[in-house]
Known about the structure:
By secondary structure, the protein is mainly α. It has ten helices and no strands. The protein is globular and about 55 Å long.
Amino acid sequence: MVLQDYWDLFVLVELSALRAGLDSLLRPTFAVHLYVGVIAAFLAWEYFFPWRPRQKKLRNGVGLDLFYTLFNYLIFWMLIGTALVEVTSVVFRDALAHYFGIEHLVAIRLEALPIWLRYLLLVLALDLTSWLGHWLLHHVDFLWAFHKVHHSARELDVLNAGRIHFVEKLFYPFVFYVPIGMIGFAVQDTFAVGLFIAVFSAFTHANVRLPLGPLKYVLNNPQIHLWHHAAAVDYKRNVNYGDALCLWDYLFGTAYLPDDRNEIELGFDDIDEYPTSFGGQLMAPFRSLLAPNG
């Protein structure tokens, strides 16, 4: 394909994504209803049974997080995100075919496995790639500049999970889809498990406490994830990268839960100087990277 072909594909995918996005607003799918319903349940849980009762019901920045959620999960993907990811994936596949002669990415086929085992493997595969992606966001300075937006919250609740810079939202699909595509998981299966992980990610930021017993070493939860946002933990030696599962942190030695405190200082060293508006946070990573000592 020549450059014009990629541009034509971008336009076609963009128009399709725009139509699909507008249609989802008028006729929300079951997945949308399910996600909104679960988030509403978490909000009610926080309101009536907060783990940190001294935290304000309408904390500072809650409006910003609501806008991030709307922007990232609707506006951005309708306007550019879907088309950009699709075209980039096509360029990637074409490059593999042209330069390395690789025509098919799928290296492992799973059709013969029972459905429960396929989904279990998919959860493990997606969550492990998510753990790796999160680790990279903290250890690569370029990526940390964008992930810093997420860590700019001084208080956590379920809505904070949506505070993510759009560049980070573009980064994760490539971390996910290349290895997952090589294993040969179906798109609809990947979407279903991705929705499950997104719900769990929201839960880990919630102002709630859920005793899990021995499962606390497997399932991620707000008690362990709170320390991931602790100001006292250096961002490059950060801890608790897990999304739906904290299993990986215990396996790779990055789990950290020194005590059961629910009130700790959150953020990073220069958080007092960090922008608190959407526009300011949108541009902050670029200013940081372009600065002479960035």
